[in-house]
Amino acid sequence: MVQSGCVSTGRVAAGTLLFVLSSAITGGAVAAPACKAPESIASFSVPIPGFAKVFKTEKLIRIVAFGSSSTSGAGASAADKTYPARLQAGLNARFKGRAFEVVNRGRSGEFASHMLARLERDVLAMKPALVIWQTGVNDALRKVDPEAFRRTVETGLAQMNALGIDVILLDQQYFPGSVKVAGYGKYLDLIRDIGAAHGVPVFKRYELMAHLVESAQFTVDELLAPDRFHLNDTSYDCLGDVLAGAISASLPQ
């Protein structure tokens, strides 16, 4: 029986966290290439206090992964290879005696406004302790007005905050054509501005993926599906586990 996933092995150099993709095989272990992420990417600058409180008092902890195709899993070979599935596996491996449930509420092609329209039904009704909201890429590609996008996201954050639900914003993916998309970088800045204005942590997916390529850990083709836009099993696995590490670091140990 083969089990695969990213396992955090701790600090290997100043300011760097090491995440190792490994396959445990009967009679030994075979390690795949390491996934190294700077601490500025693999940690949050603001806390998630409500989620930490639930972690201390509850055995079953529900997280909703909310977003578009990167959440639903476009480019993944199977449902258990998506980032929400890998996040669930990573959290459950780190914390014995707790059961983390990561519910996938991704829908391909959606703008933030589409997600807001189904927020109550698909997210709030689940009564999660934490929501990871992946958004911005389709709005940027389709040139949605940035201020309209900001208002939409802030409205969603206010609805979740009113119910005591913590939120992590997950920004856009890195892909070669992103540098040619007018406004793509502005949207990255906008998501971080929204996070800073509302005390909401932002997971820098774009920076993570760009770092993996620029540091020669992976090639673009090793991180992206054949369309060179969506993620694949490797990048979903890495994203899920680095995110699990960042969330774990925010919880009482």
Task: Report on the architecture of this protein.
This protein is of the alpha/beta class. The protein has a single domain (40-249), classed as Rossmann fold, CATH 3.40.50.1110. The protein is 41% helix and 24% strand. It has helices at 49-57, 69-72, 83-94, 112-117, 119-122, 137-141, 146-162, 184-198, 205-214, 220-223, 233-249, and strands at 3-13, 16-25, 28-38, 60-67, 99-106, 130-134, 166-170, 202-203. Strand 7 (166-170), helix 8 and strand 8 form a beta-alpha-beta unit. The longest helix has 17 residues, at 146-162. Mean pLDDT is 88; it is low at 1-33.
In brief:
This protein is of the alpha/beta class and 253 residues long.
Structure characteristics:
single chain, 253 residues, alpha/beta, Rossmann fold, five-stranded parallel sheet, three-stranded antiparallel sheet, 41% helix, globular, disordered N terminus
Topology overview:
Layout: E1 3-13, E2 16-25, E3 28-38, H1 49-57, E4 60-67, H2 69-72, H3 83-94, E5 99-106, H4 112-117, H5 119-122, E6 130-134, H6 137-141, H7 146-162, E7 166-170, H8 184-198, E8 202-203, H9 205-214, H10 220-223, H11 233-249
Parallel strand pairs: 4-5, 4-6, 6-7, 7-8
Antiparallel strand pairs: 1-2, 2-3
Helix pairs in contact: 3-11, 7-8
